[in-house]
Design brief:
Chain lengths: 372, 458
Amino acid sequence: MLYRKTITYLSLLLLCLCGVFACTKGNGTDNQADKLDRKPMLTHYADEYVLPGYDALLQDLNALKDKATAFTANPSATTLAATKSAWQEAYLTWQTVDMLEFGPAEDISLRSYMNTYPATESKIEGNIALGSYNLETFGNKDAQGFPALDYLLNSQSSTGTIDLYTTNAQSAAYKTYLNNVINKMIEKVSAVKTAWGTNRDAFIGATGTDAAGSLSKMTNAVVLYYERFLRSGKIGYPVGAMTGTPLPGHVEAAYSPELSKALAVKALESYIAFYEGKQYNGTAGTNGMKGYLAGIGTKDNGVLMADIISQSLNEGLTALNGLSGTLKDGVSNNRVAVLNVYDKLQGSVALLKVDMVSAFGISITYVDNDGD
Amino acid sequence: MSHRFTYHALTQMLRKPVYSASLATFRILFGLMILASMIRFFTKGWIEELYIKPVFFFKYYGFEWVHNWGPYTYLLFIICAVSALTFALGYRYRLSAIVLFCSFTYIELLDKTNYLNHYYFVSLALFLMIWLPAHCTCSVDCRRNPALKRRMVPLWTVTSIRLLLGIVYVYAGLAKLNSDWLLEAMPLRLWLPAQNDLPLVGSLLSQTWVAYVFSWFGAVYDLSIPFFLLFRTTRPWAYATVIIFHVATSILFPIGMFPYVMILATLIFFPSATTDAVCMRIQRWIPGIPLAADQSVYTFKRTHSRLLAGLFIPFFLFQLLFPWRYLLYRDELFWTEEGFRFSWRVMLMEKLGYAQFIVEDSKTGKRTVVNNDLFLTDNQEKMMSTQPDFILQYAHMLAQHYKAEGWHEPKVFATIYVNLNGRRSTLYINPSTDLSQEKDKFAHKKWIIPFKDKIYGL
């Protein structure tokens, strides 16, 4: 009796397993499962975006260091212009890696050393006057990085700036500070780049979707970046989208108003490229978040969410590109247009933060969950 | 007359003596699982993270008086763990059961962010256990006082635990009978590919048809397993399925101890005579175990029987009816979550929200965007963003906070986007509703924007 039942149960089980394998074979041509492999995606991001990105930034920062060394050795209109141009170049490159605040960059809070703005003038002047300061400390985050360099290089006319580094009583201290800030930036980016070198394998190996998985960490970081640092930091906060009070001094690169919009454009272009899985050099690829999301296949009215997000991000970019005049002036005097850019950027926040994240099935915490 | 006869037959049947080993085994395993769960909470640092660190707690309606004990919250967990151990050992059983029920439930009431259906199940089972003579064999109490030993207990004591388990399964199964689960394979279709890096089966989990198989199997399993466990012929296979099913869910989903609690709890479906025989065999190896060996039957005093009938019958009626309260609300249950909790709705929704709160000074018009990180943990924020009662509690807290900061009658507005089971996110509540003026009631919250789609079924 029991024997016969065992046979029945086992044959049923066998039948089910056969069914499973038959179906698997039948679906062999369906490459949806391949798209959902997280390892190639993580490998793409580490090797084709993050590592070359930090390489490029480090290269630009070293170029800036050379120009600044030349300038401090021999302050002139020519050497100053070369330094300014190298600073601008590096600042634009920073926008391509600013979103990568996960892993090594998160560990040392790279962004806070590189781009805390607005810079606090009194703190910078105080440090220079005092001659002793520790750029490592939290209190000095707004006295270093690109914004501090912006102040040191661009807050005065060219002759005024050259005077600071020549005839000013504290010219030596100015020179030291300028070089120290650049050295600190190089130190921080080098540290991140080195750590990425050692952590690369661990990063692409953590294919899980729990809070410790690389996809979860990376996605949460880039989604947070878009909302807080791109949308709010670059546009929303200065224009006072929520408060109604413009804060022109809070635009990025406040001493170089003609640059703010270019930085924002660069940031958003990079963000779209990152999402779409392009390599750092711009070559198109399919191993990005967009491809993965398309593989999962969530749709709205028959259109893939993956495409809807691309479209929405590009609408933001179009609006931003269409903005005339400087951001610094625009937040006060061209509010309707700037607020429109903000709305267009805002349109992507829920798509990224809710629709993409939930389709990815990633966790943000380690606690138990029985599915809401 | 026949009605009276049926009633008589039923009560007679429920009083039929069965072996008390069944109840004692449940007591031991259940107590040890709770103890393990408390130790797990401690080692993962969750006591600090979930119950001490947060600056704000989402209280249950009517339980606003429940507070953590600051740094002494650890003591609360120690009380719970110690009583779980003495409960398992059957040492001062009634006292242990009462303290365990109270401390465990108190912990669960601290913050509804941490609501899990299986914690609710544990509280309910412990409540029942307070009244049951689970210490009349194989307990320290029996060793201290052998006169307590009874080898038999009335059938209804064991049946009530089986019934509770049966309700949990069947209601969890009924909740799956909806179009998202059965026709769209949602949310498993999103959750399974997230586990496709598992060895061997990983690549299968990316296949849509596998999500359908899991969905349908899960629904059939939940609806039928208590019945298959009840009958002798199907029981061994049913229990094997219980083990496979729950081990699979524990590998695939972050549901903690629940699978193991269920694997051990369902042992109570085995006949009490079998459990008794197993206990007797164990006693041959470990002679110290105080087992009741005669055929003595635990009898309840007549007044106690009446009292317990007056307690257990309403208890189970409540369990049978309460999950249906959602029918009294008009909009989609998964969207509004009005009547969602305490109804064995498990693993049904992939729901995520994005909530941005704005506080406005009524007098000056000054506005600010709230940084949710200042008030809520990541997990609290996640739970708050998709559940209207959380949203309202949070808004009220914000109004209070800003008032204390000197703002005039702060208004609180929220722009919230929520998606459900793969649908595109849409606006969840009316962004122009001043939430500080809304009351938390059991009536439908009119400021929830109606669900744009339709989910068919239960």
